[in-house]
Write a structure and sequence with these properties.
Elements (H helix, E strand, L loop, with lengths): L2 E11 L4 E4 L9 H16 L4 E5 L5 H10 L5 H19 L3 E12 L2 E9 L1 E7 L5 E7 L7 E5 H4 L8 E4 L8 H7 L2 E3 L3 H16 L4 H21 L3 E2 H12 L3 H8 L6 E2 L3 H5 L3 E5 L4 E5 L7 E4 L4 E4 L4 H12 L1
Subcellular location: Cytoplasm, Nucleoid
Main location: cytoplasm
Protein name: Nucleoid-associated protein
């Protein structure tokens, strides 16, 4: 992971004041820096809140400054300083509160050049000193990272490319989401939910052509493959999925798509929320909450569609015990 630039600044915005501390020098690209960026990227890849797109047509400060940096009109450090100054103004004007450090990193990987913009947060803890005394300590909390952005600089340079910007939200970002999306001039160009639903509809249609047990297993394996790709932060290649699962069905979904569904995308970004409903059925009302694995439908749980009833043939032991205790009372 050859990083070329790395710098971190601090910004605290409360309802009464704004404190901005800009770093004068970039950080050394040592093992600590490599670990930091690796942890940030891992957290980013695992998130389900990602949105995919590009810059809006209207030129905002973030888009304009990025263009100046890429055209070598301003150096990396100056680019990050100006971004942070504009971010401080944006938070102040919007009455938004935020605290933490902001990471800026550029790296060159096999797929091309990438730029990362991420909010880092900390947690307090205790550490043992060399003389085995307890001391207060603050460390980066990778489980509570804030807003993140990944910009594919190689794709950005291609005028025909419409998907090069990915944004994601972390813990406690809800109040900031709209403001930060506007700040980075982001506009969505990919509907991951629609793409996932379209592909799973094809999987369902293909599965119904198989023997019931094989069809159900194929559907399950397809969902698991998509979920795994989501965890890795990678798109789903329909051809790769087809090759991986062909032994499950003794048939190829790729061939089925070519013959029956030629408009289906060859690759798509999976949407975790959409996939979850293919793993579990769930729902709740004011008084009842129900959740069960899709595998149990038709076996342990029957759906009477005509009367809109669920028939549970195997009650979980803990629930059964509660029901028996209640009836005894």
């Amino acid at each position: 992971m050859p990083m070329t630039n790395l710098i971190v600044h601090q910004l605290t915005r409360t309802d009464t004041k704004t404190d901005l501390h800009l770093q004068d020098a970039e950080l050394s690209l040592d093992d600590h820096a490599i670990t930091l960026l690796a942890e940030v990227k891992s957290s980013f890849a695992a998130r389900a809140s990602k949105r995919y797109g590009g810059f809006s047509e209207e030129a905002g400060h973030f888009k304009a400054l990025t263009g100046q940096w890429q055209q070598n009109s301003i150096p990396f450090k100056s680019f990050t300083h100006q971004i942070m100054e504009r971010l401080a103004v944006t938070l102040e004007q919007g009455g938004l509160e935020s605290t933490g450090h902001w990471l800026f990193a550029e790296e060159e990987i096999e797929a091309g050049r990438q730029f990362w913009f991420f909010q880092l947060r900390h947690k307090d803890g205790l550490a043992l000193t060399h003389d085995l005394q307890l001391s207060e300590s603050r460390i980066l909390d990778y489980s509570r990272l804030g807003f993140g952005l990944c910009l594919d600089l190689t794709a950005l340079a291609d005028p025909n490319e419409k998907q090069y910007l990915t944004v994601s939200f972390g813990f406690g970002d809800k109040a900031l989401q709209d403001g930060l999306v506007d700040f980075v001039d982001f506009v969505a160009t990919v509907d991951t939910s629609a793409d996932t639903e379209a592909f799973m509809a094809v999987v369902d249609a293909f599965s119904t052509q198989l023997p019931p047990e094989k069809g159900q297993n194929y559907r399950k394996k397809a969902v698991e493959f998509c979920m795994e790709q989501d965890k890795l932060g990678e798109p789903v290649s329909v051809r790769t999925l087809s090759e991986e699962l062909q032994t499950e069905a003794d048939a190829s979904i790729s061939q089925y798509i070519e013959e029956a569904k030629p408009d289906v995308k060859e690759a798509f970004i999976p949407d975790r929320k959409s996939l979850k409903k293919y793993i579990r059925y769930s729902g709740r009302s004011k008084d009842v909450s129900i959740s069960f694995s899709n595998d149990t439908l038709g076996r342990d749980i029957q759906f009477d569609e005509q009367n809109e009833r669920l028939i549970i043939n195997e009650i979980p032991s803990s629930l059964l015990k509660q029901l028996k205790s209640g009836s005894d009372g």
